[in-house]
């Protein structure tokens, strides 16, 4: 949750500073509504009886989460930049290649014991294959979303992923869920609608202005040739 709350402002700042993305008032309102929804989830977790225990070093954990969220924001903004300036096929190929190398180094250094303890069988391979397929579909669709709506919309959309855990707790584990979760999900959904609808309006108006500008340039070019 803290990762989501920190990564979104980082993405906004990075896209505004490096990619020159314009954020109008209505888009900021949509972002604020989404963040308010995720803050409600955090508030519900803090006051839940089954989440009352904290880690051995919460300050260190929070700092690691903030660092991870910052790097995640840098990754998303960089990917948006390359998506809009380079070939998407090449981007996905390089992302898969270097991602596999980095993941291999990570698992060999940090998770060797866990990897050795796995008893490989047909039943054990299936969850890993499903996870790999899900990640393949996710990272194949991310460049398309980044090119259409940008990294801010991607991070706002990821806020809805937390609600899947709520549904699993309700329907799979038969646990009771605080009503604040549903209010938070509604807030995130409303914020996404506000942000995306205004983003579409800006794109349409920008497209009309671009078309008018191109038409004016063509007329000026024709007039110059005739004279």
From TrEMBL:
Pfam families associated with the record: SLC35F
Its transmembrane ranges are 6-21, 28-48, 91-110, 122-142, 154-172, 179-198
**Any one cellular component term from GO for this entry?**
membrane
Localization recorded for this chain is: Membrane
Which InterPro entries does its entry note? Answer: EmrE-like, SLC35_F1/F2/F6, SLC35F_Transporter
Q: How does it sit in the membrane?
A: Multi-pass membrane protein
- What is the protein's major site of localization? membrane
UniProt keyword annotations, A-Z: Membrane, Transmembrane, Transmembrane helix, Transport
Any one GO molecular function term: transmembrane transporter activity
For this chain, the family text in UniProt reads: Belongs to the SLC35F solute transporter family.
Name this polypeptide is given? Solute carrier family 35 member SLC35F1/F2/F6
> Which organism is this protein's natural source?
Helianthus annuus
């Amino acid at each position: 949750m803290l990762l989501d709350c920190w990564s979104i402002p980082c993405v906004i700042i990075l896209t505004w500073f490096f990619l020159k993305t314009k954020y109008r008032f209505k888009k900021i309102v949509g972002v604020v509504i989404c963040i308010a929804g995720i803050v409600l989830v955090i508030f519900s977790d803090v006051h839940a009886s089954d989440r009352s225990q904290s880690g051995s070093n919460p300050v260190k954990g929070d700092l690691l989460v903030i660092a991870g969220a910052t790097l995640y924001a840098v990754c998303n903004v960089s990917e948006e930049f390359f998506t809009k300036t380079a070939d998407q096929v090449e981007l996905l190929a390089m992302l898969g290649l270097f991602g596999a190398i980095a993941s291999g180094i990570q698992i060999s250094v940090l998770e060797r014991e866990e990897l050795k303890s796995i008893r490989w069988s047909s039943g054990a391979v299936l969850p890993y294959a499903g996870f790999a397929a899900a990640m393949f579909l996710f990272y194949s669709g991310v460049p398309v979303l980044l090119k259409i709506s940008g990294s801010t919309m991607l991070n706002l959309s990821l806020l809805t992923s937390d609600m899947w855990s709520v549904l699993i707790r309700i329907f799979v584990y038969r646990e009771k869920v605080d009503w604040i979760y549903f209010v938070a999900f509604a807030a995130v959904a409303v914020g996404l609608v506000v942000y995306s609808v205004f983003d579409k309006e800006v794109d349409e108006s920008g497209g009309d202005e671009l078309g008018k500008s191109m038409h004016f340039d063509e007329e000026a070019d024709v007039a110059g040739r005739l004279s």
